[in-house]
Design a protein that fits this description.
The protein has helices spanning 2-14, 16-26, 46-54, 79-97, 104-123, 132-135, 152-174, 178-202, 239-245, 348-373, and strands spanning 31-33, 226-228, 248-250, 257-259, 269-271, 278-284, 287-292, 299-303, 311-313, 327-331, 337-343. By secondary structure, it is of the alpha+beta class. The longest helix has 26 residues, at 348-373. The chain starts with a helix and ends with a helix. The mean pLDDT is 86.
């Protein structure tokens, strides 16, 4: 558990520039969860478990009776040989570590084994009211996580670590002649080649759409942007992705986790008053710049974007009343100038500082370790 916690802390620290804004996003009053509740629990049955780890074809495209998600949320084929090896390594780690629990090596081995078991139980999903996947949803942040079968990924990672610890213990205790080491190496390489070949086959003919011809160039994004307000993301040929690759915003997003919708068709910034004083609107990924011309009437400059905290403007005070209403700023009569709405997600700069501190700490620890070795 300590090792898993160390992995988690490191991941949080390194990716803090993204994760801190995400935490703020999912806890914001403007956050809108469009997922439909279902009575069917999200669990992994024995049939799904066999398909996940032991069925080479993964039954691509089909769904079993209790399977809530597509095959790609479960597919983690390892084969019967790898499954037996991982199970034997786990059993050895449990029984070999217990007598040496008070030693650092025994405590580490038992920790790997317990973490592996916990992650496996977590990946089984909502099989009981006290299942780890159910209890973990009562924790902050984890309450927004879904699809417990994804925990099969860290489960296998820790299972392999446990097997490595067990194998090292067997070699240390009983020794291993050179021919046996060569034989084990050949078997391991053959098993790895088998997994590569099988899992490569599972992805053949899955991505059948024509590739994009778009090329990315630094600072070459559009200054004007239009919105696709008609297309549905659930139709074939990935219309949402294709719209984004053509520098068009997509109104009817299919993602379940999004902002409360207030945006509509039309320009990203406009004067909704009678004067129509907004001109020359330009777009960049986090800034919308516009000109307010002179006029006798006040300009009600509306930001046609789904609102979330992080938007600021130099044109005045932003007014936000309801999550589904558009925000705006009032520009007095006779005021002219070039203004902008800009967006920086809350927590972004704190995340940058956290990530920088984590990288510095990692470099210091690594340097100390190298000094100890040499």
């Amino acid at each position: 558990i300590v090792v898993a916690a160390a992995f988690g802390v490191a991941a949080l620290a390194y990716s803090a520039p993204k994760l801190l804004p995400v935490v703020q996003f999912v806890s914001s009053p403007f956050f809108f969860d469009t997922r439909n509740p279902t009575e069917k629990p999200d669990l992994v049955t024995m049939e799904i478990l066999e398909q996940t780890y032991l069925t080479p074809t993964q039954k691509v495209g089909s769904r079993l009776p209790m399977q809530r998600h597509g095959w790609h949320e479960y597919g983690n084929y390892i084969g019967i040989g790898s499954a037996v090896a991982l199970a034997l390594g786990l059993i050895w780690a449990l029984f070999a570590a217990l007598p040496r629990l008070r030693t650092p090596e025994g405590g580490f081995g038992l920790g790997l084994a317990v973490t592996t078991i916990f992650l496996f139980m977590l990946s089984l999903g909502e099989f009981s009211s006290v299942a780890p996947a159910v209890l973990i949803q009562k924790l902050p942040l984890f309450s927004s996580f879904r699809i417990p079968s994804r925990y099969s990924i860290p489960f296998l990672q820790f299972a392999v670590l446990t097997l490595g610890w067990a194998f090292h213990g067997v070699v240390t205790r009983y020794g291993l002649p050179k021919p046996a080491r060569i034989a084990i190496t050949i078997v391991a390489l053959a098993a790895s080649a088998h997994l590569i070949a099988v899992n490569r086959w599972n992805l053949q003919n899955v991505f059948t759409m024509a590739p994009f011809e778009t090329r990315f160039a630094w600072n070459s994004g559009p200054r004007q942007i239009t919105t696709d307000t008609e297309s549905s993301a659930y139709t074939p040929d990935s219309p949402m992705l294709r719209a984004l690759m053509q520098d068009r915003s997509f109104l009817n997003c299919y993602e379940s986790l999004q902002l409360a919708r207030g945006a509509s068709s039309g320009p990203p910034v406009a004067d909704r008053g009678a004067a129509d004083r907004v001109r020359d609107v330009e777009f960049t990924p986090n800034r919308i710049t516009f000109t307010v011309v002179d006029g006798a009437e006040p300009a009600r400059v509306v930001l046609n974007q789904n609102w979330t905290d992080g938007w600021t403007t130099d044109a005045g005070t932003i007014v936000v009343r309801e999550p589904t209403e558009l925000s705006y700023v009032m520009v007095p009569p006779g005021t002219t100038g070039r203004y902008s709405f800009s967006f920086v997600p809350p927590g972004f700069y704190l995340g940058l500082a956290t990530s920088a501190i984590a990288l510095i700490a990692t470099a210091l620890v690594w340097r100390r370790k190298l000094k100890a070795i040499f």
